[in-house]
Amino acid sequence: MKIFIDTLDLKLIEKYHNMGILAGVTTNPTMQKKFKFDNDLDMVLALREVIGEDEIHIEAFGKTAVEILKNSDRLLSTGKNLVFKIPFSEAGVYAVHRLNRMGYKTNMHLVYSLSQAIISSVVGATYICALAGRLDDIGQRSMETIAQMIGLGPKIMVSSVRHPQHVITAKLIGADAVTIPPDVLELMFDHPLTERGINTFEKDIEYIRGIKNANKDKNFIK
Question: Which residue in 48, 108, 103 sits closest to 84, CA to CA?
Answer without folding.
Answer: 108
